Amino acid sequence: MRLPALTFLAALSALPAVAAPTPITLEQAMAHPDWIGNPVEAAWWSWNGKVVYFKQKRTGSQLRDTFLAAQKGAQKVADADLAKLDSPAVVYDRAHTRTIMVRNGDLFERDLKSGQLVQITRGVKAEDPQFSSDERAVQFRVGHDWFSWDRASRVQGPVALPRAARDPANPEADALRDMQLRLMSTLKRAKDDRDAARTRTEEERRADATRAPAPVYLGDKVTIEGSALSPDGRWLLVVTAAKGADKGRVGKMPRYVTESGYEEMDDERTRVGRANPIPHQLKLIDLADSRVQDVPFDTLPGITVDPLAKLRAEAKLDPLKGNRPLRIADRADAVRWTLDGKQAAVMLRAIDNKDRWIATVDLKAAKLVPQHRLSDEAWVNFDNSDFGWLPDNRSLWFVSEESGYAHLYTQTPGGPHRALTSGQWEAGDVQWSADAATAYMLCNRKNPGTYEVCAVNAKDGATREVTQLEGVERFTLSPDSRKLLVHYSSSYMPAQLATVPASGGAAVKLTDTRTADYKARTWVQPEYVAVPSSDGGAPVWSKLYRPANMEAGKKYPVVMFVHGAGYLQNTTKRFPVYFREQMFHNLLVEKGYVVLDMDYRASKGYGRNWRTAIYRQMGHPELVDYQDGVKYMVANHQGDPANVGIYGGSYGGFMTFMALMRAPDMFKSGAALRPVTDWTSYNHEYTANILNTPDLDPQAYKISSPIEYADKLQGNLLIAHGMVDDNVFYQDSVRMAQRLIELRKDNWELASYPLERHAYTQPESWFDQYRRIFKLFERTLKQ
């Protein structure tokens, strides 16, 4: 359970005083992050679990090197030795005596008893490797084709060759063709000969195991979106979509500063509601006789019920007819086979985002058998959607948010599902031990921002915290499941590596990639505070940056920071995505400000109700949270209510607009960086979850788009945007600028960055942007 807010705050207040922070300049804070020391990136166990390897970016370069991690110091792996290593992602056989892996697009198998490494492919870009059900062969996909490599014979060949094309043996009906064959005996005789030869070839192919299978034709009206081969080689499940479906109109994004010296144009993404995601179909191929069957979705509960029927009627749109359109969940492993190939499970989601189903496939009848349905009146969270089969070949496991928080469940198909975890915390990134007796996962049981690895007993659900690192980012089980390789970080330390016994115990820290200059600095440590909510709900967890010693009687200008992405968590013990902003907050504290960084409603890590509070009203609950934050700063940290600024990028830029335009009496100035100004211009996958689509729910878009409130602007505004931003288009800021011009608004400016996309990469751009933000606050909040 979470530590109560007052207890947690009391514990923080009892912490010993720390050394005065080292002054930071804006130039240093916005410099290339190489000066901090590059974090550990991908990391993996050696095949025998004795050592750890990791990737790290070179200083001053985008190239990566591979290192062997050791307490005495990392050792760079020589290029000549790279061919001996495994890759970060390996697949084990059931007994954990062999692994397969893809490295640089090629497939390898390793014998874990001898260490022998065998290369299976070269230069074919293999994907989705798996062991056959009898484990005598390795199966893999190249494009849409599936292949098998037999270990004993070392023979490699195709198993399934699906084709999105019409079978040449069965051309489409055509009256002229029929007439020609009826009238011209020579043509008819040639056709009969071809048909007989084709039939004989297929008979020989079926009788001769050495022959490659013939292609399986799915028709020329579909495209292949994905496929999954049963480990026994008998079945292929293929995800298809209608060919030639309308993908919607795309715009053009100009690039003015180019290597060629001429203006160049890039295609933009489709805007929300301009074309819904293309629905999927599912086909089952019996590879024994190449029979293709459609697997209908009719059996899914609620598939014909339109949860948006009321909105559809209000918008005077035609009612939904038949099944709701859906997609096989947009993830690489949306179709999962048992290890013996006898059962398959599929995860599907409605395109309206209100339902997620897990169903098994009746292979004999070619139909779905529903096992679990997760519904949400707002939208289903696909961030926590792990699922799969346990090694017993009969038990499913999955993560569901049905309790209000993401937790782990197991189920025998046809029976009830059982919760293995519960409580007001989130479970994610599930990994099972080799014997499936224990599930390991990321968890935030102590409080929302403290992440550890938890171990859960599969029989009774007993849960324990394995690590005590507070800022765990991800982890990997060792080959024998006895240790964890953990990426962890802290407020001012980027991701590092440690190993921890799976049974629990002290961590062995393997890396510290920080530079000496960075490590020598003392920083303003964020205080983790729980801001009371005026809406009467849970507190808003936040990071507070303030001087260690406040001057009695002084009122400090307040800066509120808004993280981006909406569904992102920044109030954690981890190294923040916003590490530059954190250094900027140090500078602000040094210059006499107090700063609050809030995990407003819609942030990640706080459960379903927190996430969906913004449904059909983006920018409204979050603004209440920021208003509560200002009141908290005034009441508890000598904040000056007359001098409050706010800033952030992307969603943070959107919220800066909402604060300045919907609460102009509270927020005096703000910097909106790469901001969304009108949600009708954003992408479908994110926006339609929260606001539905503009034709269906125009009022939700109207009340959620800052451009609708531009006439209310009173304060001082900086807009900053990269001109080649392919996420939030530069057009968003240009349209807002035109609106402010037409409204004759004063005290605003637009800073444009010709070479920057959504995530800035150049130190010069970072410096220029934050120089403007700092000047804005200095000019407007210290009067």
Explain the overall architecture.
The strands form 11 sheets. The protein has an 8-stranded mixed β-sheet with strand order 38-39-41-40-42-43-44-45, with helices on both faces. Helix 3 (175-183) packs across helix 4 (185-207). The longest helix is centred in the first third of the chain and has 23 residues, at 185-207. It has 783 residues and is α+β, with helices and mostly antiparallel strands. The protein has 14 helices and 45 strands.
Question: Which structural traits does this protein have?
Answer:
single chain, 783 residues, alpha+beta, eight-stranded mixed beta sheet, 45 strands, 19% helix, globular, disordered N terminus
Provide a compact summary of the structure.
This protein is an alpha+beta fold and 783 residues long. It is built from 14 helices and 45 strands.
Described by strand count, sense and barrel closure, the largest sheet is: 8 strands, mixed
Question: Regions with pLDDT < 50 over 5+ consecutive residues?
Answer: 1-16
Radius of gyration, in angstroms, nearest whole number = 29 Å
Inertia-based shape: globular
Helix % is 10-25%
Number of strands: 45
Percent strand equals 25-35%
Q: How many H/I helices?
A: 14
Report how far the terminal alpha carbons are from each other. 45 Å
Mean pLDDT: 93
Derived structural class: alpha+beta
- How do the strands of the widest beta sheet line up side by side? 38-39-41-40-42-43-44-45
